[in-house]
Amino acid sequence: AQSVTQLDSQVPVFEEAPVELRCNYSSSVSVYLFWYVQYPNQGLQLLLKYLSGSTLVESINGFEAEFNKSQTSFHLRKPSVHISDTAEYFCAVSSPSGNTGKLIFGQGTTLQVKP
Amino acid sequence: GAGVSQSPSNKVTEKGKDVELRCDPISGHTALYWYRQSLGQGLEFLIYFQGNSAPDKSGLPSDRFSAERTGGSVSTLTIQRTQQEDSAVYLCASSLEMSYEQYFGPGTRLTVT
Fold first, then answer.
1. Which residues of A touch B43 (CB under 8 A)?
2. Residues of B with CB below 8 A from A100's CB?
3. How far is CA A74 from the centre of its chain?
4. CA B97, CA B84: separation in Å to the nearest integer?
5. What spatial distance separates the first Cα and last Cα of chain A, rounded to whole Å?
6. Within 10 Å of residue B23's Cβ, how many Cβ atoms?
7. Among A43, B18, B80, B97, who pairs with B106 as Cys (CB 3.0-4.6 Å)?
8. Which residues make Cβ contacts (< 8 Å) with residue B21, sequence separation at least 6?
9. What is the predicted pLDDT for the residue at A42?
């Protein structure tokens, strides 16, 4: 069985400061990894994904995440956050060896960016 | 193009009543997923449809929950004899076959009183 742990339920940070949202996963098979973002009163949006290839993946709005197989982690980072980054962030895993592509989500991390 | 749509956006029902939630996936997406988002349980997978294959129902929490997908497009999630613990936001997502990139709808917020 697969599981995802997001180590911080809330992360308060000041605008323009760097941030790291932590995600660890457990799986006995190979995995695909995702970060989704949910802005207030909106649906889930895919932020970035790791399927294969380079272990460092980037989003169009400055976020990046690095797949670390030995540490079973996929932490999300941004060097300088904006007020508009305030949202809930979900780490998720699926298995390429499965036949559904269903996502297993972590509990979410609320990023609170303060002016 | 149009994204995933869900209706209704909000539904309030009395305990014991049946409810139906609807999902219209993105045109051309053959895979469709239902998830549930609740305060206590977070985001949980419920059911998956792919083309004409048998659905993966492994996430349905009880036999009061069922879903169907007609014509490979629209899907309906039905909850019979609703209970207060069914209160949650029900999310639908679709994707191209095995693309592993799921697009989510805005959800239906279900409140059971």
1. 90, 92, 103, 105, 108
2. 48, 50, 56
3. 7
4. 35
5. 41
6. 27
7. A43
8. B6, B7, B8, B11, B76, B77, B78, B79, B90, B108, B110
9. 86
Per-residue pLDDT at B70 exceeds 90: no
Here the tokens at position A26 are: 């457990």
| CA–CA min distance A36, chain B (Å) | 10
Percentage of chain A modeled with pLDDT above 90: 71
Cα–Cα distance between A56 and A37 in angstroms, integer? 18
Report the C-alpha gap between A88 and A36 in whole angstroms: 8
pLDDT tens by residue, A18-74: 999 999 999 888 889 999 999 988 889 999 999 888 888 888 889 999 999 999 999
Å between A107 CA and nearest CA of chain B: 5
- β-bridge partners, B88: B110
Mean pLDDT over B71-88 rounds to: 94
Q: Report whether pLDDT(A98) > 70.
A: no
pLDDT score of B71 more than 90? no
Which amino acid type is present at position A5? T
pLDDT at A83: 96
B44: which residues sit within 8 A by CB, 6+ positions away?
Answer: A105, B35, B36, B37, B38, B59, B61
Query: Which residue from B minimizes the CA distance to A94?
Result: B100
